[in-house]
Amino acid sequence: MALDVGVLGYRFMGKAHSNAMARLPMFFPDAPEINREVLVGRDEEALSEAADRLGFARTTTDPSEAIESVDAFYNLGPNFVHPEYSIEALEAGVPVFCEKPLAPTVEEAEEMTDAYREAGVPAGCAFNYRFVPAIRYAKGLIEDGELGEIYHVRGRYLQDWLVDPEAEWSWRNDEELAGSGALGDLGAHTIDLARFLVGEQAGEISEITGQLRTFTDERPTGDGETREVTVDDAYLATAEFEGGAVGSFEASRNANGRKNDHTIEIEGSKGSLTFSLERLNELGYKREGSRGFETILVTDGDDPYIDHWWPPGHVIGWEHTFVHENYEFLSAVEEDDEFEPSFEDGLATQRVLAAIQESDENGQRVSLD
Amino acid sequence: MALDVGVLGYRFMGKAHSNAMARLPMFFPDAPEINREVLVGRDEEALSEAADRLGFARTTTDPSEAIESVDAFYNLGPNFVHPEYSIEALEAGVPVFCEKPLAPTVEEAEEMTDAYREAGVPAGCAFNYRFVPAIRYAKGLIEDGELGEIYHVRGRYLQDWLVDPEAEWSWRNDEELAGSGALGDLGAHTIDLARFLVGEQAGEISEITGQLRTFTDERPTGDGETREVTVDDAYLATAEFEGGAVGSFEASRNANGRKNDHTIEIEGSKGSLTFSLERLNELGYKREGSRGFETILVTDGDDPYIDHWWPPGHVIGWEHTFVHENYEFLSAVEEDDEFEPSFEDGLATQRVLAAIQESDENGQRVSLD
Amino acid sequence: MALDVGVLGYRFMGKAHSNAMARLPMFFPDAPEINREVLVGRDEEALSEAADRLGFARTTTDPSEAIESVDAFYNLGPNFVHPEYSIEALEAGVPVFCEKPLAPTVEEAEEMTDAYREAGVPAGCAFNYRFVPAIRYAKGLIEDGELGEIYHVRGRYLQDWLVDPEAEWSWRNDEELAGSGALGDLGAHTIDLARFLVGEQAGEISEITGQLRTFTDERPTGDGETREVTVDDAYLATAEFEGGAVGSFEASRNANGRKNDHTIEIEGSKGSLTFSLERLNELGYKREGSRGFETILVTDGDDPYIDHWWPPGHVIGWEHTFVHENYEFLSAVEEDDEFEPSFEDGLATQRVLAAIQESDENGQRVSLD
Amino acid sequence: MALDVGVLGYRFMGKAHSNAMARLPMFFPDAPEINREVLVGRDEEALSEAADRLGFARTTTDPSEAIESVDAFYNLGPNFVHPEYSIEALEAGVPVFCEKPLAPTVEEAEEMTDAYREAGVPAGCAFNYRFVPAIRYAKGLIEDGELGEIYHVRGRYLQDWLVDPEAEWSWRNDEELAGSGALGDLGAHTIDLARFLVGEQAGEISEITGQLRTFTDERPTGDGETREVTVDDAYLATAEFEGGAVGSFEASRNANGRKNDHTIEIEGSKGSLTFSLERLNELGYKREGSRGFETILVTDGDDPYIDHWWPPGHVIGWEHTFVHENYEFLSAVEEDDEFEPSFEDGLATQRVLAAIQESDENGQRVSLD
Predict the structure, then answer these.
(1) By C-alpha distance, which of B7, B11, B9 is closest to B21?
(2) What are the TM regions of this chain, as residue ranges (chains A, B, C, D) (predicted)?
(3) Which of A333, B25, B104, C124 could pair with C97 in a Cys bridge, judged by C-beta atoms 3.0 to 4.6 Å apart?
(4) β partners of residue B366
């Protein structure tokens, strides 16, 4: 019995997840069989073209209709669409997979998480970097105590696609439509990775101080006018974890020369790790007793997920994280199992982002207890 | 009218090409429509399982039967299988795509190439690294004269999966079955890349000196016996190009710590380039007027093939080279167009490999005129 | 007429500066001639041995006596010794060169700076990293507008010599003796470099938020006892510059695997830079119109100070920064010229460090106006 | 009783060695006391200026006179000056330190080595890269068997100061004056390092094949004329060691973008190493049981020579290799001890270089038995 899947959204994320689903049978033969049943959107023409290309059986412009007819609902629309349809699906007992950040506000994220707790079905939040083999390998090292007590966590996500002040205004520059800027779009990934990697050893973030910055206040709209930019171009934060580790976090869309530099560094009493998304097959590892950071190509047969792919040294790409993520989520759906990162994780990250925003506004350290 | 495709071979290369074909519709919508029609092999059970997984309509153990029924034939079997069925297909007017190295001997490669010239249909040789975006971007720079006159070409392909003298004997250690060792398996890629990149500026390799080495003479067979290793573990060569450039080439399966280090470096009067397969999204470029090597992430929208994939900085993997390769080959088949690298290229590389072997044996520089 | 120089301190910094002075005649023939006249310390025996080795004509245990008899006084003692003898020298009209951080408190730093303003002679603060050729070259690029408007400044100084909780207690773990921990010892360098590099374009730091952390509360003393650690092992800070740039700063002595990783990164509207002390001959430069960071070996004949040393590619070391620093300071002394970094710079940095400490205590963003 | 030292040559190498001697007392207090007694050259004015700057007591234009009056004679003149005065000194029982390559021809190198054997005093050949701490640390690892059986040795020395075809002709482009080009100037260093590092495990080079190339046949002289270039711009070689390892070697002065890239890579059955002169404080080490190359900063207190310098992470420069070299040589002179690399080593390398040249000429592999 194949699972019928409905997907809201057919642009960047829609394509990434559709591709992931399409690749499961060849590489993850034990994944549940699925039908890409229905693609949801507003623009019928674009939707129809996308459904053809992405391999969906049919389309609809009515999310509720889709939700009723599927075994799993992917909510990949913009931020402000997340709460309503995620809750609707969960209330109907349909497992949900929702893009990050979970919601425009903590309150909405809480409502979504409440719905998840009530529903008793998987509700995943799309922190795909948890599914990078190097990251999972790193997580294993930390859990095995190879780093000892955690002292430092450092995360940054640098891009430069807004560095040109003349780059055109888009919905991503608007607070109403996008919720936030670099903080929500990039920072959410970093905070989640930090939680994922050191959560068990170092605990949650207990206090945080944050700062936002918009470097370009208004941008041209393309018709000779300019329009105000109402989201942040960059954020900075320093944090304390329950277990005593300290963390520093940063993201920017104005970091000239950086394309997708999501870098995580963790230092502990016994060892250290470093990872960068631009070289996602690699992990830097200072192990106990060694003299420096070792550059590990995490592509061996016994590395996480790698036995499904290619021989050692045959690197995988960014999109493979979605295949792993979908494999885990759809397996959980089929077996009615737990899936992580869940809405709980989405909510936890949302609270940290909100605290950063609060601290930016009031200039004070914010407690997260 | 979809193209019916037959594929001989269902292991590593069979999987890589089947995956590539499966991904074309979503990412290269203008690629010809194809049917994965028939999978060819000898072991019926394994074949049937593979056909299911790789998405083939049917199977056969008779290559000739397959050839008769398809619009394009992929010869992905071991080396010694290449000549017979490739020639059979070409004589039947069926376009062929053949794995590298083209044939066990230069003579057979010549026969295959003759058949190609007669047939007037595309016959491709599987040098997939020509389809790495960074390599194609490099090729463009060289063609545009950005490197000026070419002085140095350096290529090496280092792996370490045979570094353990106790690693078990396999068919890849046997000259009869494998043709050659590191030279044919890895060196073929390097020589082809060198020809591809600098051929127009520096001409062909005109003289070469070579050296082979087998570090481990016999290996355990798993049943308490040992068996002789009759192929090389490593080769070294130095060469001269028609235009005066010099080249040095090397490959090894005993290079401890190297997983898939296919590195190419080219230096010219105006600029230089460096590329490594383990970081295949990156190109090192010393441009005229700059002071050092620039690390370029070749993932921008206007980089070769990238507009089909993801936004800047979202890296692709090794397997994507096969998608590009299949896109080009199948498009050529449909439009009855030229495809490169063709059997001509396979033959040219084969001649260089043979000259290296000859030089190893007689201790003399070998002319390739 | 040679300058008589007196030096207080004969350990790490004493050796670094004595070596620098000794090398001037051979490499900077236009430097003023100097006598290493008198070495000042408390332990007569050790002092005498050091004077022999470091090439001083005589020794004294009385700083005041030394000050009276020299043309320039180097105050290289521990932090708490800085104010008294620096002020005494300046009041006597003797130029002073003082180690960093300038003083234990802002108040004392202000008094020292007042003395400097009154004295009208050079008073240098030992921020030697301003004299790394790559840093000076970077400064030139920024001044020439090659980076455009400054958006991001990122500085960190990571070491790991205290990562072992069993490492013995030393005076550097004591607030009374050392003033502060990583903040004063390492952070002072980072803050000064940030000011030096972007001060003219981005202005001074106007607001800052900080956090300190002591990971190991007490350490063994070697006699079976333990003693309290009263300084920080690490600090974190995020800042805003007058011109709108944002900065993040960090240092640690517990960053496992990092030996002397003083890394500075600056991103602007047109270009970006990156520098790390562990590779001090190199500068990473993303220039306008290029596609990535260029790795520049700053060892060409027209790079700052390099014509005094060796041909291109023949790298210099950490100690060379002291030669350049002494060359500039002693030249300023001889010609009664300005020297930077002066006590003004030392004071400015001290204020930033104090603001970080204040913010750590009260949990609030601190304004530096 | 201080050693009187005479030095022939006062340019690049004269400066490097004079500086090294000058630094010994402060950093190597157990080094023999020396007098920089006499500087030898032909141009009296330049010589006198140099003697002042480099700290020599007197000058002479008569090498024989100098040899008679010193306890050690440094022969740092151009290649063709090496045999005569080195032999004269050795015949007079005066220890000699001679620049590399040892002599213009193998025959002369043999005569020099004969003189050394007869004299029974130290005669050093200036392969200073043996004295890089990272290289000595590497040597220790190899001797301790940490790499196991040696399979691959790879050495290259790339520079780019002749990449511009319009760069002016100099004596270095002339065979009579310079002996050879990249082969003798750069290749000598590489061959010696290979011998030093793996000689005991892998034996000597037993067979070699070589190739020379002059990219620019004539160069402008500055007066509107051009003059023929009679030396090589680049060499390539592949070799076999007695123990079965293979080696590839290369050097160029036309390698655009490379300043002083002397890179050595060694791979063995248990581990591997990589080193580059442009980052001379670092060693790449793949150790048994690890998963990748570790980047080691060879600046710890127990690393070779480092206890004489600065704390961990405070990097040293190219010139420090000369201090170590002089320390060892002068200590050997004082104690009438062995010094390595001696003229024996200079001769062994000379033979390899000659074999490369012979192979280039006759197109055949050359045996070195």
Answers:
(1) B7
(2) none
(3) C124
(4) B208
Quote the tokens at residue C60: 């004294």
Total number of domains constituting chain C = 2
- Helices of type H across chain A: 12-27, 44-54, 63-69, 82-91, 106-119, 133-143, 175-178, 182, 188-202, 320-335, 343-362
Same domain, A105 and A181: no
Looking at the complex, does the CB of residue B367 fall below 8 Å from at least one CB of chain D? no
Residues C89 and C230 in one domain: no
Q: Which of D245, D171, D176 is nearest to D208 (CA)?
A: D245
Q: Which residues from chain D sit within 8 angstroms of residue B270, using beta carbons? A: 256
Cα distance between the two ends of chain D? 45
Q: Is residue D336 part of a domain?
A: no
pLDDT of residue D74: 98
C292 touches chain A (CB under 8 A): yes
CB contact under 8 A, B19 and A23: yes
Q: Which residue has the tokens 């519709």?
A: B25
Give the pLDDT score at B267.
98
Of D75, D96, D128, which residue is a domain's last? D128
Between CA A366 and CA D279 the distance in angstroms is 44
Q: Which residues are paired to B72 by β-bridges?
A: B5
Query: B49-67 pLDDT, tens per residue?
Result: 999 999 999 999 999 999 9
CA neighbor of A70 nearest in space, from A97, A52, A99, A47 = A97
Say whether residue C287 is in contact with chain B using an 8 A CB cutoff: yes
Of A234, A238, A267, the CB nearest to C211: A238
Task: Kindly state whether residue D323 falls inside one of the protein's structural domains.
Answer: no
Distance CA B155, CA B263 (A): 6
Q: Cβ–Cβ of C236/A248 closer than 8 Å?
A: yes
* Stated pTM of the model: 0.97
Give pLDDT, residue C91.
Answer: 98
Q: Do A19 and B26 touch (CB under 8 A)?
A: yes
Task: Give the separation between CA D332 and CA D325, rounded to whole angstroms.
Answer: 11
- Spatial separation of the C-alpha atoms in residues C346 and C325, rounded to whole Å: 15
Which pLDDT score is estimated for D177?
A: 78
Same domain, B251 and B140: yes
A114 and A146 housed in the same domain:
no
Collect the ranges in chain A with pLDDT lower than 50. none
Which of D88, D111, D128 corresponds to the end of one domain?
Answer: D128
Task: State whether residue D293 sits within 8 Å of chain A by CB.
Answer: yes
* CA dist list (Å): B61 to B16, B42, B52, B74, D248: 20, 5, 16, 14, 46
Q: Which amino acid is it at A202?
A: A
Contact list, A257 vs chain C (CB under 8 Å): 267, 271-272, 286, 292-293
Partner residue facing C234 (CB), from A213, A246, A364: A246
DSSP letter, residue C367 = E
The CATH code of the domain that includes D9 is 3.40.50.720
A201 and A56 assigned to the same domain: no
Shared domain check, D250 and D110: no
Full DSSP string of B326-352? HHHHHHHHHHT---SSBHHHHHHHHHH
Residue recorded with tokens 């003399």: B364
Domain with A58, as residue range(s), is 3-128
Give the nearest partner residue to D364 out of B258, B272, B364, using CB atoms: B364
pLDDT range class, residue D222, cuts 50, 70, 90? confident
Alpha-carbon dihedral angle through residues A134, A139, A140, A145, given to the nearest 10 degrees: 130
* Residue in chain A lying closest to C235 (CA): A246
Which residues from chain C sit within 8 angstroms of residue D14, using beta carbons?
Answer: none
**ipTM for the complex?**
0.96
* D83 and D164 both lie in a single domain: no
Same domain? For D41 and D167 the reply is no
Which CATH number covers residue B269? 3.30.360.10
- CB of D278 less than 8 A from some CB of C: yes
